[in-house]
Write a structure and sequence with these properties.
Blueprint lengths: L5 H14 L12 E10 L6 E10 L4 H5 L2 H4 L6 E9 L2 E2 L10 E3 L1 E6 L8 E7 L8 E8 L5 E7 L40 E2 L2 E2 L6 E13 L5 E14 L4 E3 L4 E3 L2 E2 H13 L9 E14 L1 H10 L21 E14 L3 H9 L20
Parallel strand pairs: 1-18
Antiparallel strand pairs: 1-2, 2-7, 3-4, 3-5, 3-8, 6-7, 8-9, 10-16, 11-15, 12-13, 12-17, 14-15, 17-18
Length: 370
């Protein structure tokens, strides 16, 4: 899913702060600390991460300050980050084993990609499990100033399996006696002009995305294998734009076989693959479905580049009293592994978009380009 990465979001926030605000902030004000907080939590992920950075308003050069670790990162133990869960306004309701209503994050350091900001970034992480319902309150506290920054967000669950391929059992690997031509068990998207429609039941999200990941291996001359994958990404879709199947109350992503193979062929061309191998073979497919909230849609719209002449736009924040810049909300992920039909696997060996990459047929035959 094409969600923005941390570094880009931080860059956008600072660009907006130093370049576009006219009335909300006085850039020549006395040295003042303002945190930027990015917290997109996912109950289906093992690790939750919150990013908290400093932004200073003053007469210094923002670009120079961004390169200094201490100018954008809080010191160890200077910030505490907690989550509190509420049900119908009641804190600390009873919970099943393994979940907590109050979660305390620990600080950590990651190395970001080189860019406008210092590559050493302090983040706050937890491996505690999150619920998929109720309301969470995020609290970021500066232990030196006792200033508390809070925001609220409703947790959401992932999409519900629809009972239709590919979101249905059996999953990879399937029983050996299964019929490899049964499309309800083995997905087959190999007919070029046919429209395919993976279906799912929606959740409370407002923005949806789907991605098909095709796993393949390179068979080397020393009989070893190198495992790789290539993605077909549907991009973001607002729920109002998704095709609704009224009889089932389902939503669907539509695509044609020719578009899938063209996109995969293009992605393969960017991978720098070496054809000095015995051959390659597709062997399984992974399906991802992501959702997120209206708050995240609003955030994307606020942080998108302005096309107006004035270049003036407000800074997004869903923190209480706008004491901090940034966002706190939820996204979800649902994924399954599926075994591909033998016809689908074989099509990669001779399709014009993929045949030049030495893909085997399902019977390990190098058919090659027509």
């Amino acid at each position: 899913m094409k969600f923005l990465n941390f570094s880009y979001l931080l860059a956008v926030a600072c660009i907006l702060l130093f370049s576009t605000c006219k009335n909300d902030l006085n850039i020549n004000a006395p040295y003042k600390e303002v945190p930027t907080i990015y917290a997109i939590l996912n109950p289906q992920e093992v690790i939750q991460m919150v990013r908290v950075n400093k932004v200073f308003l003053g007469e210094g050069n923002a670009a120079d300050m961004a390169k200094i670790s201490d100018s954008i990162n809080y010191q160890p133990d200077e910030i505490t980050v907690t989550l509190e869960r509420y049900i119908n306004g009641v804190k600390n309701a009873a919970t099943p084993t393994g979940n907590k209503q109050i979660i305390t994050f620990r600080d950590s350091v990651i190395q970001a990609n080189p860019g406008a900001f210092n590559t050493t970034q302090r983040v706050y992480v937890t491996s505690d499990r999150l619920y998929v319902n109720g309301q969470y309150v995020l609290k970021v506290t500066n232990t030196r100033t006792n200033k508390v920054f809070t925001a609220r967000a409703n947790a959401i669950d992932s999409i519900k399996p629809s009972g239709f391929t590919p979101f249905t059992a059996p999953y990879y690997p399937v029983p050996a006696n299964s019929n490899p031509s049964n499309p309800d068990i083995y997905p087959d998207y190999s007919t070029m002009n046919q429209t395919y429609s993976p279906k799912f039941y929606p959740n409370e999200g407002a923005l949806y995305s789907m991605k098909l990941r095709f796993h393949f291996f390179d068979s080397l001359f020393d009989n070893s294998k190198v495992y790789r994958y290539v993605d077909y990404d549907f991009g973001n879709q607002y729920i109002k734009d998704l095709r609704t199947i009224q009889s089932y109350k389902l939503f669907a992503f539509d695509f044609k076989g020719v578009d899938l193979f063209s996109s995969i062929g293009y992605s393969l061309s960017k991978m720098g693959l070496d054809n000095n191998i015995r051959g390659r073979k597709m062997y399984k497919m992974q399906v991802f479905a992501y959702t997120t909230t209206q708050e995240y849609i609003d955030y994307l719209q606020f942080t998108a580049p302005s096309l107006s002449i004035a270049q003036s736009k407000p800074i997004y924040s869903n923190f209480d009293n706008r004491d901090a810049m940034g966002i706190f909300t939820f996204r979800t992920r649902h994924s399954v592994y599926k075994e591909m039909s033998s016809t689908f696997i074989s099509t990669f060996s001779f399709n014009p978009s993929t045949c030049m990459y030495k893909f085997y047929t399902s019977a390990l035959v190098l058919q090659g380009c027509p």
